[in-house]
Known about the structure:
heterodimer; A: about 180 residues; alpha+beta; 2 domains; four-stranded antiparallel sheet; 3 helices; 4 strands; B: about 500 residues; alpha/beta; Nucleotidyltransferase, domain 5; Gyrase A, domain 2; six-stranded mixed sheet; five-stranded mixed sheet; rod-shaped
Amino acid sequence: MVLSKREKYAGIGAIAAVALLLLDQFVLSPYFDQLDTVSQATDKAVRQISDNADLVAKQIKLEKVWTEMQNGGLQVDESKADSQAQLAMLQWAQRANMVVTALKTEHVAQEKAFEVLSYDITVTGSTPGLARLIWAFETATIPLRVNEIQISSRPENTDNLTVRMNVSTLSLPETNPAGGNP
Amino acid sequence: MNIVEEWRNQITEKTQELLRPKKVIGLALGERSLLAAEAVAGPRPQITRLEEFVYPPGLTAAQPGELGAALGAFLKSRGFTAKAAIVGIPVRWLLVRRKEVPPSDQATLIDLLRLQAEAEFSTEIKDLVYDFVAGPDAPEEPGNAEKIPEKSVLLMGTQKKHVESAAAMCKAAHLKPIAVTASALAVGEATAASGAEMMVLSAGPAGSELSMQNGPSPSAIRHLRAPDPQAPFLSELRRAVSTMTGPGRRDLVLWDGAGGMDAGALGEQLGLRVRGGQLAELGVEITAADRNGEAPKFAAAVALARSGLHGKQTVDFLHSRLSAPKQLPIPRWAMIAAAAALVVLLYAFWCYVDLGHKEDALALYQTKIETSKDQVAAAQAFVSKVSFAQNWHGGQPRYLACLRDLTAAVSDDGDTYATTLSLREATHTASIPSAKAPTTDLRALTGQRAGRSSDQQRVLSVVDRIKRTAGFSEVTLLGTQNSPREREVTFSISFTYVAPTATSGG
């Protein structure tokens, strides 16, 4: 069969088009898909490695803080932590010339590796005494956190204050598998 | 000529100019000796050496290896330093035909002359190398000015063995042969470079060469016998002149290489104006040693060396324009397609290798992540634990700071006082703090203050002052209530407070 020049060119063009289509279907598209997948996975892996490195660096930084906390009075026994907190609060109130009218343990809850002991304490006294008491609470070396304070004066417009505070302390039970040092 | 060809030619010319040797030896071959001249490039080429190399006994131009070795030694001993040579062969070795060709471009002219050369010479001698030199344009026909005049060319052929011998001799002499041409052409072109019509006669002891020049273009070229004996030489010369000259052509330049020729007497005998040529006329500066009046015999060598420096020879049998075009074993389009396919394949291979490298790198990262999994988990647990416990770690008195700033913001006007104040952690959602609760900023507190004042204006003033105090935000007056009987206003204000990072308590 003799083909004219036009037919030859048309045939070559058709074959080239089919070849390009097949090339795209079986080579180019799969290649670029794989390249895209690998690039994305690589970016993700690099980010994760970077995050991990940051985490380890933070861990090293926090080890010092953790040592300070343990030395500062973080107890492993719940009852010890309870008595330590109650004793401290009573002592601080006494030093601040505040009268403790109520102190009761409100809750004991498990949070992460810790047990959180919460107290409601009600004291009466003057503004300077209250300031000294709050200062003592907020700068304590033992684990203590003031969650809430309500102040009222009775009678009104006098320096005779009634203060109700909600505070909490921590203990780290030894038996807890996640509680130890890393 | 399209623009691509023009650029290609320009690039080729520039490249050739850069690659052109700066020092060339012109070698005019003869039967028993050759003449050598060394030219150094400059605004006016300098001829630094002129020597005649007489072939050693038993050697001829047909033994190029031995002759070249002897020539190399000779040139070295005489101080020649050029590494490139242009060889001139005698007219005796040439077959010359004058052809009239229609005006055409160079490519067409070459194709035409190639066909004519094969038809003209093939039956006479085998293995010829052809080239051509364009002659002067034919004059227009009287009364037919519209007809484009034909062009005359001198078609030349020489045996391939002469060209190969010349090249082999140069190589044996450690010279690079840049061209093989006819000595008479070089002399004629250099002598008549000014554009004048003249005849140029180079006479030597072994033979003479006569060319009819129309400026640098030759219109005829002939080999003649040696000038001695004079009578037959004169007779032959007279016949040659009569066939070559027209009515106005009466000048002849004589390059006397035989010695003892008298230009004046020759002119009288031929009825022409004859003068002896001087080397300086060839457009060169002679710095070589005086040859005791023999200088004119080196005209061919000097002209060859000069043309070698200029780079373009009218005829070059070594690089003949009429040689059969090289047939590529593969079509050009196929070569381009193959090259393109090769490039695509190389690129594809690179892509494959690159992807492999990326996959390897990813595997490495993933291995690193996997191997550090336990360490990271432990670090995560520890950081989480300590971060949680830090919330119970003292040292940042936020409640006290809030009380201090609130007291400072509300000036004691004697009529406004607080009845209750409630402060709690902003992130505090239950009575027991939870790690799951939002923990945006532990320094933040939310508060609500209730109080009494003498009038609404003072209440608003209190709100404004709190708003202006650093650390307080979202200050909102929740409500006021007039108590006309007591002439007081009760109010309630909510706010958010963020303690400064460095707080001094007490």
